[in-house]
Amino acid sequence: MTYPELGSAQFWQDLADNPAALAREVCAVSIVDLDDTLQKHPALRAWVGASYEAARIELERRAWEVTKTRSLALIAVNEDATGRDGKKSKTVGVMEAEVNARADVMEAEEGRLAQAEVVGALRAMTIALEDRKDMLVQLAAKQRLEMRDHYTGPTT
Fold it and tell me: Which whole-number Å values give the CA distances from 17 to 12, 21, 28, 114, in the listed order?
């Protein structure tokens, strides 16, 4: 396997740059070294599962940050919308557009979206590792049959 060490800076960078390629590498099966793949699979699955849950929690934090930032922005825009006569001079739609156009709101939303990509990639890896487990069981059974046939001759 050629994927970066789990949890390393390179792993997280690869996850951010190209999550699909990293997922493909992490979830690949080495038939050449099946015993090693079988031994490392539970740890890999546990690590990816734990990382997925941590990423989901971080996504919730970022969503809360977006909510707080939007609320503060809406308060500021609302205060700016009051005219000299005390009446609102902007419609709700205009104020909402101003909130969405603020740099701090866009930055918070970009952070949430970037985290959502990480969550999606880790979720995909979690699902793929479940499929990988099934494949490993089948490959190990096939390898046992081949070894038996090699030493005892095929049975029909």
Answer: 9, 9, 19, 11
CB 55 within 8 A of CB 120: no
What is the spatial distance between Cα 63 and Cα 60, in angstroms, rounded to a whole number? 5
pLDDT mean across residues, the chain: 82
Residue 25 structure tokens: 């590498």
User: How many CA atoms are closer than 13 Å to the CA of 92, on its beta-carbon side?
Assistant: 0
Q: Where are the domains of the chain?
A: 9-144
Summarised one tens digit per residue, pLDDT across range 79-136 is: 877 666 667 677 888 888 889 999 999 999 999 998 998 898 888 888 888 888 888 8
Q: What is the DSSP letter of 82?
A: B
Indicate the Cα dihedral angle 55, 57, 58, 62, nearest 10°.
130
